[in-house]
Amino acid sequence: MDVATDSADQALAHIAASMAEPVRARMLCVLMDGHARTATELAAVGEVAASTASAHLARLLKQGLVECLAQGKHRYYRLAGAEVGQALESLLVLAGQPRPRFEPSTPEPLREARRCYDHLAGHWGVRLHDHALLRRWIVVPPAAAPRDYALTEAGVSALAGLGVDVDAARAARRRRLACACMDWSERRPHLGGAIGAAWLQALLEQGWLRAELDSRALRPTRRGLGALEQLLGANAR
């Protein structure tokens, strides 16, 4: 008997069994949109009690199908990687079902742009985070703390060109330079840390965003929308 093949067969059987349970299958399917969910939300998706949902999520974590991101008192779950999503996509094709769609419930003014402490959150915060990763302005360094980013030379140059005070951000004490912060409306990361704060400050100073009175909400100005569209290109919206 081929031991390696036998082990692979057993591993496949365990993973398939984890996916095959109806509650866990629903949880996995709803996470296919790339947006993280809390255990409470996934319990509602699976129509089970919180304790039951926790047991199901523990099984999915053990099989490496999902990962858990801790942020403050909250725990968010998302698919463990693109390969998990691809496998689920293929299975949904065989099942003849479309990919589920994420429908956020956050009020529109807060969903578009808002402060998350001192950095940018919401639609535009997530888009700028994704753009910085795509352009490799920020990267995940080897052996980094969870969700930490390193700033590349290209990132220093690009952000400085956008008016971000990189030197001041680097000088900030007792603070992470750049990190992924889970966005509670988009359920995808936006950019936190000293660089995230400095970038928001630059956006406000240059008039790309304006603050709403008595609210965390921020509004892109006409000038800001044009600048964001030029910066982000086809991915601006």
Please explain how this structure is put together.
The longest helix has 18 residues, at 3-20. It is built from 11 helices and 11 strands. Helix 2 crosses helix 3 (39-46) and helix 3 (39-46) packs across helix 4 (50-62). The protein folds into 2 domains: 3-95, Winged helix-like DNA-binding domain superfamily/Winged helix DNA-binding domain (Arc Repressor Mutant, subunit A), CATH 1.10.10; 108-235, no CATH class. The model has no long low-confidence stretch (mean pLDDT 86). The protein has a 3-stranded antiparallel β-sheet. It has helices at 3-20, 22-30, 39-46, 50-62, 82-95, 108-112, 123-134, 153-161, 166-171, 193-205, 222-232, and strands spanning 37-38, 66-71, 74-79, 114-116, 119-121, 138-139, 150-151, 179-182, 189-192, 209-211, 218-220. It is α+β, with helices and mostly antiparallel strands.
Biggest sheet features: 3 strands, antiparallel
Low-pLDDT stretches are none
Q: Please state the overall shape, judged from the principal axes of the Cα atoms.
A: elongated
Briefly note the structural class of the backbone.
Answer: alpha+beta
The tally of helices reads 11
Radius of gyration of CA atoms, rounded to a whole number: 20 Å
Strand content: 15-25%
Distance between the termini: 54 Å
Residue-averaged pLDDT, rounded?
86
Number of beta-strand segments: 11
- Strand order, largest beta sheet: 1-3-2
Q: What is the N-to-C succession of helices and strands?
A: HHEHHEEHHEEHEEHHEEHEEH
The level of helicity is 40-55%
Number of domains: 2
